[in-house]
Amino acid sequence: MTIRFSLNGEPREADVPATASLLDVIRDLGLTGAKAGCRIGVCGVCSVLVDDLPVSSCLYLAHCADGADVWTAEGIARASPEVVDAFVECEGMQCGICTPGQVVAAFAARAELGPAADEAQLREYLVGNLCRCTGYATIVEAVQAAMAAADGR
Amino acid sequence: VAVDPETGQVKILELVSAVDVAEIVNPRAHQMQIDGGAVMGIGFACLEDLLEDEGQVLAANLGEFRLPAAADVPALRTVLVAGGRGVGPANVKAIGELTNVPAAAAVANAIADAAGTRVRQLPITAERVYLAINGRADDHPV
Q: Alpha-carbon distance A87 to A79, whole Å?
C-alpha cells in the first residue's frame, strides 16, 4: 500500500507492506537515527514524534502514519539545534546508541511537561528511554538544558 | 535504603561511591563512569534477573530483563579519595565501570541492615526480601 506523510517537514511517499513498522520505513528512506533496539517498545532507541507525540516506531505500523506529521532526531536536530547542543554541552551521552531517542524524548518533554517540570517528573518521563552507560545524570541535565533553551521549531 | 516490612519492597535512597583516584584526565567522563557503573550495579543488585533453563536464557528481551531507568536511580554521591599513585602514563588510573563491582554488595548490606535479615541471592527482589523477613526459604530458587 502507498502511504503519504510528512517526514521532518518534507512530504514523503512510500510503498509499504501492511505489516511494515514505521521504523523500517523511516530507515529505508535513509534516516538511521532511529534504531531497532529491542523491537518491543521498551528501550526507546526508535523514538520518533507522530503528530507531536513520542512513539516507539518499532511498534507503530507504518500505514497508521498515513497523513501524519513525523519527526525524527535528524529533523529535530535541524529545526531545533538547541536540543542537540544541550546534549553536546552536558555530555548527555557516552556510547551514543540511545542518544537519538533521548533527543526525541527531550523535545517531547519540553512540549508535554513544559519548562516548569521538576527533576522527578523528567526522570519519570524518561523511563521509556534506557541508557546503560551514563547513569542518567548527564542525560537529565541535558534535557533540563534543552527545556530551558528557547522553543525553535 | 528503605524496606517496606509488609511487602519487602526496597527503595534505594542514596548511593555513595568512594573512589581511589590518581590524575583525572576528563573529570566529566570520569564522573559518568562512576555514575554509570553505580547504576549498572543497582540493576545487578535489585532488577536484572537472568533466569535460565538448562542453559537457555529465558529473558528474551529488555522487557523481561529490566535495566534501571532514569526514575530508578537514587541520589548518587561521589567521594574522590585523591592522591593515589597511577599505574598508567601521566599518573592515570583506570575508572571504567569500577563502581559496578562493589555496588550490589553495598546494596545487599544496606538491605540486611534495614530488614534485619539477609538475602543471599541477586537480584534482591521484593519477593525475596519478603520471604527472608518472614523466615521462609525461596521455594523457587534460580
A: 15
Q: What is the pTM (predicted TM-score) of this model?
A: 0.90
Residues of B in contact with A120 (CB under 8 A): 71
Residues of chain B contacting A140 with CB distance shorter than 8 Å: 70
- Which is it for the CA torsion B18, A134, A119, B61, positive or negative? negative
ipTM: 0.87
Grid cell for residue A81: 539545534
- Does the active-site annotation cover B97? yes
From B34, B37, B62, residue closest to A38, measured CB to CB:
B62
Per-residue pLDDT reduced to its tens digit, B24-83: 999 999 999 999 999 999 999 999 998 889 999 998 888 889 999 999 999 999 999 988
CA atoms of A114 and A54, how far apart (whole Å): 15
- Find chain B residues with C-beta within 8 A of A136's C-beta: 35, 39, 70, 73
Alpha helices per DSSP H over chain B: 27-46, 100-115, 126-133
Report the alpha-carbon angle B65-B69-B70, nearest 5.
Answer: 175
CB atoms B35 and A136 under 8 Å: yes
Place of cell 583525572: B24
